[in-house]
């Protein structure tokens, strides 16, 4: 991996770390379905504006259907699951569970996509989860049933991310590739179309919602335009450059940023666990994304 790849991983983690805070603010007020739909809708709008502004091509090169399906798997379902979980779980809890994405990706890749993982990479995944547990303080939930439902929702989301990463490589990267901006745009179209019927049903049959809340709208716009439109351009570019499994390791870095943004925005205290856990996470990310290259270099030097 190049230095620029590591920088993009950090940038993506910082942006997605903030998304948990935004969803935690919006979902209880607007509802899970409505928040998820508004996120992908504004993600779609944001990407459309970006693409028009830079005069990007809208040529999907025969991959439009694949992009739509990826949108459902990689955006529509996961966003709804996380918005659902945000009604029951603290943001930190969701961030911990979100970090199981590389593990889910590894398991799915091993079981269905012929991926081979070294013991060192498995060790890195486990170490990353340990670091995240050290970092995040889990708040008390209101009931056991809600906790279980929230955990299941988050795990469904991470499973979707794991599948989508490999399908992106199979349907997009391995078939001539496609501009990451175009893939991201198509995926948000797919996610928006998927969630639109549920949004209509929710607003017409669900409980009355107070839509005149400036702070909530600010969170929705931020999570849609910044955490979705901009972030997914970076994410799909990473998948094309470094592969799905390495791209999924970004989730190891999200909880430290989520805690940091909560500290800055809500004046929450950062304890020693944050520093220790952050160091553990950094080591785990290095183990997962670079061990094979390092071992190959060491072996080459030994032969010389």
TrEMBL record:
The keyword Metal-binding does not apply. It is a multi-pass membrane protein. It comes from Rahnella perminowiae. This is DMT family transporter. Keywords: Membrane, Transmembrane, Transmembrane helix. Residues 9-136, 150-289 form the EamA domain. Its main location: membrane. The chain crosses the membrane at residues 36-54, 66-89, 95-113, 125-142, 148-171, 183-204, 216-235, 247-264, 270-289. It is found in: Membrane. InterPro entries: AA-Vitamin_Transporters (IPR050638), EamA_dom (IPR000620). The keyword Protein biosynthesis does not apply.
């Amino acid at each position: 991996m190049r230095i620029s790849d590591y920088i993009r991983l950090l940038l993506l983690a910082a942006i997605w770390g903030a998304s948990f805070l935004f969803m935690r603010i919006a979902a209880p007020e607007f509802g899970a379905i409505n928040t998820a739909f508004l996120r992908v809708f504004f993600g779609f709008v944001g990407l459309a504006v970006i693409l028009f502004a830079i005069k990007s091509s809208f040529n999907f090169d025969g991959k439009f259907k694949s992009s739509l399906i990826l949108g459902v798997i990689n955006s529509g379902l996961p966003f709804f699951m996380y918005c659902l979980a945000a009604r029951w779980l603290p943001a930190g809890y969701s961030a911990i569970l979100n970090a199981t994405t590389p593990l889910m990706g590894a398991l799915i890749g091993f079981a269905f996509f012929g991926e081979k993982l070294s013991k060192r990479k498995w060790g890195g995944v486990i170490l990353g989860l340990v670091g995240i547990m050290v970092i995040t303080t889990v708040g008390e939930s209101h009931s056991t049933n809600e906790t279980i439902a929230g955990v299941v929702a988050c795990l469904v989301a991470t499973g979707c991310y794991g599948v989508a990463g490999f399908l992106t490589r199979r349907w997009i990267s391995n078939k001539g590739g496609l501009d990451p901006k175009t893939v991201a745009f198509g995926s948000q179209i797919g996610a928006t179309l998927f969630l639109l019927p549920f949004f209509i049903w929710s607003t017409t049959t669900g409980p009355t919602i107070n839509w005149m809340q400036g702070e909530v709208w600010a969170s929705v716009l931020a999570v849609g335009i910044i955490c979705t439109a901009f972030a997914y351009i970076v994410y799909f570019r990473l998948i094309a450059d470094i592969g799905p499994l390495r791209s999924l390791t970004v989730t190891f870095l999200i909880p430290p940023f989520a805690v940091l943004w909560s500290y800055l925005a809500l004046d929450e205290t950062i304890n020693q666990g944050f520093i220790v856990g952050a160091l553990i996470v950094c080591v785990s990310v290095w183990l997962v994304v670079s061990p094979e290259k390092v071992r190959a270099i060491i072996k080459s030097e030994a032969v010389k």
